[in-house]
Specification:
117 residues, alpha/beta, Hypothetical Protein Mth938, Chain: A, three-stranded antiparallel β-sheet, 22% helix, globular
Length: 117
């Protein structure tokens, strides 16, 4: 099997994650984070709609990493994003990190809102 190294150009990939942190673009983010191909920073959780809504027109899907286990996303959060044309995909945080990087490598218009593991 031939392995090909994935390159992301100038886009920010999730390099690693662990208990309480994410490493993105050689920077460590502590706590819940909102990660896009062009920026990464703190996110206050489901009460913080401003950050994800500011991505309308820039992304098609927001991956939501819900920690170690999958749980329910608040309906108001999901509906607010969907009303702006942003699909919402809940999954556990490890799966969201992997999926973000795969879709980023494919050039998709994605972002990730992640709760720590």
């Amino acid at each position: 099997m031939r392995l090909t190294e994935i390159t992301y150009g100038s886009a920010l990939a999730i390099e690693s994650y662990g208990p309480g942190f994410f490493r993105v673009g050689h920077h460590v983010l502590r706590g819940p984070s909102l990660i896009t191909p062009w920026d990464a920073g703190a996110w206050s959780g489901f009460d913080d709609l401003a950050g994800p809504l500011s991505l309308a027109g820039k992304i098609d899907v927001l991956l939501v990493g819900l920690g170690a286990e999958v749980s329910v996303i608040p309906k108001a959060f999901r509906l607010a994003l969907e009303a702006q044309g942003i699909g919402v995909e809940p999954m556990n945080t490890p799966a969201a990190c992997r999926t973000y990087n795969v879709l980023l490598g494919e050039g998709r218009r994605i972002a990730a809102a992640l709760f720590v593991v």
